[in-house]
């Protein structure tokens, strides 16, 4: 039994009390810190709201201060810190905290359609939508401060000489693409605006005389139009002042690439067959490609040729080696090239053994070529197709494209008597071995 002088906390009780005190102190400290953070963020939001209100008042003044105010304001779609605080530079600082004010303007239709580019002929008097967003350093999970308004120009400002051109940029699926840089140019007028989220960019224009023609161009790295062009254009005609012109949308999407390989089967390579000395060009086809043939021809760069800058047609690209109309009796199914992605296809070469004789004697180093039976549309790179030279046995293990060919000796190490005048006794390939007999 303890005496009175021994009463008090034991070691276990003391440790337990310290743990409880630590938990309570930590909770209190966290609560205080959270309260301080909340108070600080609330103060930042109040400062941000003041900056947003300040920017919006300046915008309203600029918009209505002159007849060209709406046009001047909309000339820049997005502006960052357009009106810095007195004596300050971007980003603006308040109490040592940097703030960023981002102002975005977009012309909206006064008619049906969710976009100025979709309103059609009903769009005759557009209004200007203004969004001001304020952000600051170390926001954490706090949302930016935003302010929005709609500004309507005085009637006389729009119904006079000022017209509007609404250019829409759509992807391969027909969906509007945002943040695409569109340039409208004509005469001395040039302006560039990014498209809004709906893919629409609106330009106010006021040419000295009507009608007037403009060209809308969109260019962005890694993108292409349906014909594989890095830039897409659209002609725009403005007939009169006070009009709202909506040309056909511009199709523009992330480009893909297609790698095409011309190769023999592995077993043929093991048997000693080789590709032709010169590989033919490659042809790709899609009904959407401009031109009567709806094809593109690409020079071969080796066994594998990569074709960049391709529009991502949902039906894909049919492809075949060569350019002759009869170079391939059937084409493989279209290979789909995804936007910004890649695809591949392999075309097999047909192994052929060519044996060259002159009056029954095997000919060494005889140069052999192959001509397509029907040369319509053939390029010089495959008419003839250079196959190679014969070996010491008078043979050449080579390959050709699928189709019908005739083989001919065009030179090499001539016999002592020289090559006969008749060098064109040729044979059509219907089997893997072709005998080319020189002389009669």
UniProtKB/TrEMBL annotation:
Pfam families (alphabetical): N_methyl
Domain of life of the organism encoding this protein: Bacteria
Record keywords, A-Z: Membrane, Transmembrane, Transmembrane helix
Transmembrane segments: 12-32
Protein name in the entry: Type II secretion system protein
Species of the source: Angustibacter luteus
